[in-house]
Amino acid sequence: MKLTVRYFAAFRELTGVEMETLDTDASSPSDLFNECAARHTGLQKFTSSMVAVNDEMASWDSALSDGDEVLFFPPVAGG
Amino acid sequence: MNPFEISRREIDLVAFRKRLLDRSCGAYVQFDGWVRDHNEGQQVLRLEYEVYEPLAEREGQKIIEEAIQQFGVSRARAIHRGGLLELSDVAVVVGVSSAHRGEAFDACRYIIDQAKIRLPIWKKEYYANGTAEWVNCQRCSEAGHAHGVVTARAQQ
After folding, report:
1. Which of A14, A72, A76, B98 would you call most buried, defined as having the most Cβ atoms within 10 angstroms of its Cβ?
2. Size of interface A-B (CB pairs under 8 A)
3. In this complex, is the C-beta atom of A76 within 8 Å of any C-beta atom belonging to chain B?
4. Is A14 on the interface with B (CB under 8 A)?
5. The CATH number of A2-73 is which of 3.40.50.1110, 3.90.1640.10, 3.10.20.30, 3.40.50.1220?
6. Exposed/middle/buried for A67, CB within 10 Å: 0-12, 13-18, 19+?
7. What is the ipTM of this complex?
8. What is the pLDDT of residues B17-56, one digit of tens each?
9. Mean pLDDT over all residues of chain B?
10. Minimum distance, in Å, between the CA of residue A13 and any CA atom of chain B
């Protein structure tokens, strides 16, 4: 299936990519992240990283469907 | 209007407070977060907030609604800045009005604490030594985060 991945803040700088489309068999954001980390040296998931799918916060083991947009958020720091 | 807003411009604190005025309220608590000139031993010159606005505004609204419901306050709202900020700029403001002060303090604290951990907002600090880093990396470093890479790209 085809998925769109978006990287933010430190993740975007580590990958040098803002957005990419992948043909993948990843069944969860967690699997997908591992796949992305294999493509981009330096990209790794920190304990407080978060993920959103189609603009909704999601869990790392939620199910992905064809056409989903997956957003990878490094640890946040508002305020 | 969303009680949680992202603003790319300086926050008008007078207008902000005005919208929380309520004749049934005897207490108003406001928290301002300012840009500080130091962090973890580094001299900070300015900072930049990256915000993923669609989700930040929606999640921020949820936090405000939770606070109103949990603490029974009358009104609450918040504005968080995006973009480049200078020292002493207001980075975030939270305001809560209620009949009495206890719940207003509690709700205000809840909103700022939740905002810091739940909103897709990232802070990059620019230091006097010419480097720049994404904040929160005490946790990143535990995971072996390669700071040099981030710093080098930030300088381009």
Report:
1. B98
2. 93
3. yes
4. yes
5. 3.10.20.30
6. exposed
7. 0.92
8. 999 999 999 999 999 999 999 999 999 999 999 999 999 9
9. 90
10. 6
